Amino acid sequence: MNRGEKLKEKGSNFHKNFSGFWDYPEIKDECLCCGGEVILRYNESDCDRRYCSRKCSRRILTTKKVRKSAKVFPMLYFLKHERLYGSNDGWVTNERIMEVMQRKNNQSGKMGVWPSILRLWISRGWIEKKRRYVGGLKDYSSEYRMRMEIVESPIPLGKQYLIAAGDWD
Questions:
Q1: Is 168 exposed, middle or buried (0-12, 13-18, 19+ CB in 10 A)?
Q2: Which runs of consecutive H residues, i.e. helices, occur in 29-147?
Q3: Model confidence over 54-77: pLDDT tens digits?
Q4: Taking the complete model, does pTM exceed 0.85, yes or no?
Q5: In order of start, what are the domains of the chain with their CATH numbers?
Q6: How far apart are CA 151 and CA 127, in angstroms?
Q7: Which of 92, 105, 90 is closest to 152 using CA atoms?
Q8: DSSP characters over 58-78
Q9: How far apart are the C-alpha atoms of 43 and 51, rounded to whole Å?
């Protein structure tokens, strides 16, 4: 029931022709860290929340067990999104990763920064890597995607991330 209907129920003469406010529904989502409930609202500050609290957000982005955690987790989140909704079966080139991370998350870095960060997650079994040869033997481009076991897991991505880092209690 929206605010306009509540005013009509009160029976006030001032609101008898009132058609109601534009109340938007609350959308319930899952916290990326703990799996708790996040309520998305129409206002500017709450329309794109990913975490249920500031504690969950800080726990992910400032964990001491992962070096450059503020760069690593958004990149893993992007790779998961590309695996679920992207084209080319989830394979993303190094150039595309660099472009998105610089544009969306204000993350700076040269071309070689992202593969060196991904190397750890490849060794942990989170990311798959393939080389696509363009010309000769030395002329190749690397492509990355997140493994489907990680994407389809019922555990939230942030919790998996902290468990893999050894920071989940």
A1: middle
A2: 54-61, 69-85, 94-104, 113-123
A3: 898 888 888 887 777 888 888 899
A4: no
A5: 1-62 (no CATH), 64-153 (1.10.10.10)
A6: 11
A7: 90
A8: HHHHT-TTSTTHHHHHHHHHH
A9: 16
